[in-house]
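Trying the structure run again after the queue cleared.
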Amino acid sequence: MRVPAIVRWPGKVPAGVATEEMLSAHDWYRTFAALAGASDKVPIDGIDASRFLLGESATSGRESILFFGPDGSLMSVKWHNMKAILRYSEGIDQPIVAPQWPMLFDLASDPGELYNIMATKMDMGWVLSVALKFVADYQKSVAQYPNIKTGAEFEG
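Done. Tokens:
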């Protein structure tokens, strides 16, 4: 999912800046907490992009976004303008499909995800290794810090 965002805070956030930097929904929690001086109060994954919003950093700090499906399993990985699709669905009422080989799209030149690069330019396969590194990092993180089961007590 790609959606635009607008941030306005006169005197704090520079006006007239347009960027293609990424943030996930989780990043806003940590970022707003940092701007309020309470970054230690947010026990949720995400990055603090406050320096980016305030114009103190050229990047948000977010390199990739992992997208999970309704079953909680990984669907795709976005890295900069490249997107690797591991599973997909043609609609909410359609089944989830795992292609024989991951699909790869260059969102800068193909925002509609119409042309699977892996079908025509297999020399771009190296991008999959970068995307899969983010998957491995995620799996390592979950192994070290398992998700809390629904209804379980939380001490953190």
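The chain is about 25% helix and 10% strand. Worth checking whether this holds up in the mutant runs.
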